[in-house]
Design goal:
Distance between the termini: 19 Å
Number of strands: 9
Radius of gyration: 20 Å
Order of helices and strands: EHEEEEEEEHHEHHHHHHHHH
Strand content: 15-25%
CATH class of the largest domain: Mainly Beta
Number of domains: 2
CATH superfamily of the largest domain: Regulatory protein AraC
Strand order of the largest sheet: 1-8-3-6-9
Number of helices: 12
Helix content: 40-55%
Structural class: alpha+beta
CATH architecture of the largest domain: Sandwich
Length: about 280
């Protein structure tokens, strides 16, 4: 599946306009190489992100990270906003990606449930969207700076509306820095590196310390984190490409297709060929 490319580094659209332009039809599952935020005031339907389905309800914020496969399916005219922004937009505004990592609203993989907010917070976020809309015209002076500041404010309000482990928000915490380095390494190397020891050596740190830190901050061991990433990509390739099970196995760095099939069945409860057939039927 080829990612959809952004036309500009930052974009803002009303959900109702997108719905009207699409003639009320649902989009196909797709992936972006940019960040997406849905601020939902009212909507009926579901949002599927990496095979997890979430029901649209009033006063939600949905976050989709680059590379995630998602599909918006609404069965009535919604009310809300969609923001998209590229990594280049962050660079232009001197916003480090660690800011997004530390607030932990965007997930690279795994479950990505929406953030539920109260009406007062939704009204506040809707007001920020309206301010962004005022800043969108190209002739608006310091347009990019204004949009970047409003985006950060939007995310800070969202962060303050959710219950997160505050340890993950401390950029000076050595464990947080280690976790961020590990996540970056997994996202870059999961197709080649399958062992915790390989990541520990690259950081460098002992495998035991790495697993303890990841488990302490995320609730999952480093091994589980790596396995989850492999399973997700396997599902993506099996469901959205014409690659055979054998080709998927080699794409993900397994020396033998049988090893991949055993791994996938152990993690998912069904063989890769069974999963592919089930999704096609």
């Amino acid at each position: 599946m080829q990612p959809r490319k952004p036309h500009i580094n930052f974009n803002l659209q009303r959900m109702e306009v997108i719905y009207q332009n699409a003639g009320g039809t649902s989009d196909e599952p797709h992936r972006h190489d940019y960040y997406t935020i849905l601020l939902v005031e009212q909507a009926k339907g579901r949002h599927v992100i990496d095979y997890h389905s979430y029901k649209f309800e009033p006063y939600q914020v949905h976050f989709v990270a680059p590379g995630q496969i998602h599909q918006v399916a609404v069965n009535a005219k919604p009310s809300g906003w969609v923001i998209t922004f590229a990594r280049d937009f962050l660079i232009e505004n001197n916003i480090p990606e660690s800011f997004l990592t530390n607030i932990n609203l965007f997930k690279q993989f795994g479950e990505t449930p929406p953030l539920h907010i109260d009406k007062a917070t939704c009204d506040r976020l809707m007001h920020i969207m309206e301010q962004m809309e005022d800043c969108m015209p190209l002739e608006f002076q310091y347009r990019i700076r204004a949009l970047g500041a409003l985006l950060q404010l939007f995310l800070i309000y969202c962060n303050n509306s959710c219950t997160l482990d505050t340890r993950q928000l401390d950029e000076e915490n050595s464990g947080v820095c280690l976790l961020r380095d590990f996540k970056d390494l997994v996202e870059t190397n999961y197709q080649q590196w399958h062992k915790v020891g390989t990541y520990a050596e690259a950081i460098p740190i002992s495998p035991k310390h790495l697993s303890f830190t990841v488990k302490n901050l995320t609730g999952k061991t480093a091994k589980e984190f790596i396995q989850d990433r492999l399973v997700l990509e396997a599902k993506r390739l099996l469901m959205h490409t014409e690659l055979s099970v054998k080709e998927v196995a080699y794409r993900l760095g397994f020396e033998e297709p049988l090893h991949f099939s055993n791994f996938f069945k152990k993690q998912v409860g069904i063989s890769p060929s069974g999963f592919k057939h089930k999704q096609a039927s």
